[in-house]
Write a structure and sequence with these properties.
The chain is mostly helical. The chain is 84% helix and 0% strand. The chain is rod-shaped, with a radius of gyration of 23 Å. The mean pLDDT is 91.
């Protein structure tokens, strides 16, 4: 079961930077005991969660900036539309 989880998460490590993903691939080959593999799996899962948290935070900020920019653009259109009256 440990081997399957480790292999599955190594495939997911492609989301990380190339150097970090390669580090984990190399460490899997070096880790021989279950204790070393468990420690490696724990660190890999922690890095994957951290990467997802950073990606989500970046998405939230970009989405917020787009929303504010859209409101400003629409508001500026109303300021420059000639009023009939």
């Amino acid at each position: 079961m440990l081997e399957i989880e480790l292999s599955k998460n190594i495939l997911r490590a492609k989301e990380l930077e190339q150097d970090v993903a390669q580090y984990y691939k190399d460490q899997v080959e070096v880790a021989t005991t279950d204790q070393n593999k468990q420690a490696l799996l724990g660190k890999l899962i922690q890095d994957l969660q951290w990467h997802r948290e950073l990606s989500y935070t970046r998405w939230v900020h970009i989405n917020g900036a787009w929303t504010i920019t859209t409101y400003i653009f629409i508001g500026s259109l109303f300021l420059f539309i000639p009023r009939q009256g």
